Amino acid sequence: MLTWREAQSYCREHFTDLVTIYNSNINQLLFSMSPRVKDWAWIGLYRDPYSWKWSMDNKNIYFSFTHEFLIWANGQPNNEKAKEYCVALQGQTEMNDRPCGDSYPFLCYNAKNTSYILVKENQTWSAAQSYCRTYHTDLTSIRSKEEKSNITLTLNGSGVQYVWIGLYRDPWASWSDNTTSTFTDWKSLEPDNYISLEYCGAFDLKSRKWADGYCTTRHFFFCFTAVTKQTVVKMKLQSEADMHSTEIQQQVSQQVSSSVTNTNLTQVQTMLHVFHHLHILSSCQASCCQKD
């Protein structure tokens, strides 16, 4: 058994990567090929605590817990109970991740006159975003010291404890092989981010349901091998030459290859994620890998 990171390295060295689960059929396939034991198997799903987005441009940004002008409150972000995916300013200057369904005042940005508008009406993060996009430009972003200074001036003396800004993240959107899958099959009350340290996705071998877990725990793991599918182009050739001649065959092959290359039809390959090659180690009788 390996930690999530060790399992990832093992899968990448010997196969393609930790498995990505795109739909219920794949989920069921893994379950049908697994031993019915009270244990877990790592899958490729993980939560990146450093990946965030601004509502205004919807692009991933990465920053650690220390930043020049994006300052987190003490102990934040902690994603308490795996429910805090939106960010509010706390005490006008520090950031705190909060449940997106909580209601707070919010700060809009208007790009036409470069102004910041504090709306002292309590709204959820999504409702605040909708309001700002309807009447202004969007929820505010903080992308420079100058913007941070202007926001602080806007909030000065407002008396608000929390105020929504445009920072948020997509929970559990990352897979080890960098593909995209929105399918999930969480157990009841999962993910729960127990004591704020569960970043990796695990598959229950007895129920096929998922949970978040400590990445340093040792579990079975699922690998997959990506195979290629090649498009075959068939051509009919007519010639008075002796087509059984090796020399003629080589000449025709060269001409056909050149022609096909010029039309961009050669080596048409599509990577397909095929999971029936869930390789079995000798110490494991099902399609999950175990390494002591």
Polypeptide structure, described:
The strands form 4 sheets. Strands 2, 11, 12, 13 and 14 form a 5-stranded mixed sheet that branches. A 5-stranded antiparallel sheet has the order 4-3-10-5-6, with helices on one face. About 9% of the residues have low confidence. A hairpin with a 5-residue loop joins strand 12 and strand 13. 20% of the residues lie in helices and 28% in strands. With 292 residues, it is of the alpha+beta class. The radius of gyration is 27 Å and the shape is flat. It has 3 domains: 97 residues, Mannose-Binding Protein A, Chain A (Roll); 118 residues, no CATH class; 36 residues.
Structure keywords:
Mannose-Binding Protein A, Chain A, 5-stranded antiparallel beta sheet, 292 residues, 3 domains, alpha+beta
Work out the radius of gyration: 27 Å
Give the integer mean of the pLDDT values.
Answer: 83
What fraction of residues sit in β-strands?
25-35%
* Strand element count: 16
Structural class: alpha+beta
Shape: flat
Whole-number count of domains: 3
End-to-end Cα distance, whole Å, is 5 Å
Q: What's the SSE blueprint?
A:
Blueprint: H1 4-14, E1 17-18, H2 24-32, E2 40-46, E3 51-54, E4 60-62, E5 84-90, E6 94-99, E7 104-110, E8 115-123, H3 125-135, E9 138-139, H4 145-155, E10 162-168, E11 174-175, E12 200-204, E13 210-213, E14 220-221, E15 223-230, H5 246-262, E16 269-274
Parallel strand pairs: 2-14
Antiparallel strand pairs: 1-15, 2-11, 2-12, 3-4, 3-10, 5-6, 5-10, 7-8, 7-9, 12-13, 15-16
